[in-house]
Amino acid sequence: MVSIRPGPVTVGGVVLDNHLLLAAGILGTTGSSLSRMLSSGAGGVVTKSIGPHPKNGHAGPCLIVLEDGLLNAMGLPNPSKEFVDEIASLVKKPVIVSIFGGNPAEFARVASWFEGRVAGFELNLSCPHAEGYGAAIGTDPALVEACTRAVSVTGIPTWVKLTPNVTDITAIGRAAERGGASAIIAINTVKAMRISTGMQRPVLGNRFGGLSGSAVFPIAVRCVYELYEACTIPIIGCGGVTTADNVIEMMMAGASAVEIGSAVYNDVKIFETIKADLYRKDGLTQELIIGSAHE
Amino acid sequence: MSDNLSLPVSIQRVKKETSLIRTFVFDHQFVFSPGQFVMVWIPGVDEIPMALSSENTITVQKAGDATTAMFNLGPGDKLGIRGPFGNGFTKGEKVLGIAGGVGAAPLLPLARATV
Q1: How many domains does chain A have?
Q2: CA A148/CA B84 separation, integer angstroms
Q3: CATH label of the domain that carries residue B102
Q4: CA distance B45 to chain A (A)
């Protein structure tokens, strides 16, 4: 297997301890769980998405465990501004706060609460199951550009997480780039549903949700590959990464780092596990790997 | 991972414990340790965690939307069940169970297993 020579990692204006980040929405609701992920090998962490108002989220069931992935419709539950205090102890750590809003002004407002307290922002323009937020905005290039600009003007690293639930993800990636994004993350979950045949009802309370985990890895690789050819800002690969070889594959497609979420469900020490396989002193420098599958 | 969709169970009987507490008897017996809980799906309402009060019962106090909806269910109605989840109680030779109100429900299988 290809391995990476250890070295400094800076992606989209954020200095990371390694190429592996905790993805938004997994163990990201408390300062202590984020701290635990950092001390168990994550090179950086992304918080659960924070919005302009507190939200309870959707009625259950909210999360279904499938053979090769997770299906969820949480509905962006979050404590809003109170979260500022929750992560106060993590100042100066590689913590990216995921934020969402219904328009550019709301994005700017939420971002302002965290100025000087976090390493960067990840804009959730991609949640597939929250009305008026996430993918409702993230499928419109003009709105993506405007929301990105509303946050990037702060000068704080601004990453934009994209939805795969569009015909052409490169159009959205380029819009984020025009808005001043310092990096893009591909992908958020794939819109999906399951039905209980015994109950004759959709299994999620919200009926529709987002699929993550190994099942979506090939979709994520394809999106990263397409974005690498269309954009010049760094790309962070996200979606079904479970092994060190998956990390290398994402990087060959064009990712400068990866985010890992669903794999934490089966192995809470996944970051240590992957790191042990990924880095070797005689490995290749990252420059020789990133985008190397392109001709 | 393996597909972990809810198991549909039918309510066989509803036992009225008090004016606000009822025990729902299922047509399915779960293998579980005392103290473990299941996720109970009331379609169209919510999915809530509830400790098993025996291998085929949950004992529920009417408190919110989901439990209020459950109180409208009777024999033949279906619930979706996931689990059991959690670690259950630590086993010991001698057991002293202390609980208040409906909190006694998860202790019942422990007391039965200890006798």
Answers
A1: 1
A2: 44
A3: 2.40.30.10
A4: 7
Whether B46 sits inside 8 A of A60 (CB atoms) is yes
Contact A65 B1 (CB under 8 A): yes
Which of A154-172 are b and which e, b meaning 16 or more Cβ less than 10 Å from the residue's Cβ?
Answer: bebbbbbbbbbbbeebbeb
The single-letter DSSP state of residue A132 is T
pLDDT digits (tens, 9 = 90+) for B35-89: 999 999 999 999 999 999 999 999 999 999 999 999 999 999 999 999 999 999 9
How many secondary structure helices (H) and strands (E) does chain B include?
2, 6
What is the β-pairing status of strands A235-238 and A195-196?
unpaired
- Does this complex have an ipTM over 0.90? no
Residue A282 lies in a domain: yes
Q: CA-CA-CA-CA torsion for A94, A219, A191, A173, nearest 10 degrees?
A: 60
Residue B2 counted as domain residue? no
Is B1 within a domain? no
Tell me which chain A residue has its CA closest to the CA of residue B7. A198
pTM, full prediction = 0.93
- Would an 8 Å CB–CB cutoff place A239 in contact with chain B? no
| CB atoms A60 and B41 under 8 Å | yes
Instruction: Give the structural domain span for B66.
Output: 7-114
With beta carbons under 8 A apart, name residues in chain B contacting A66.
1, 3-4
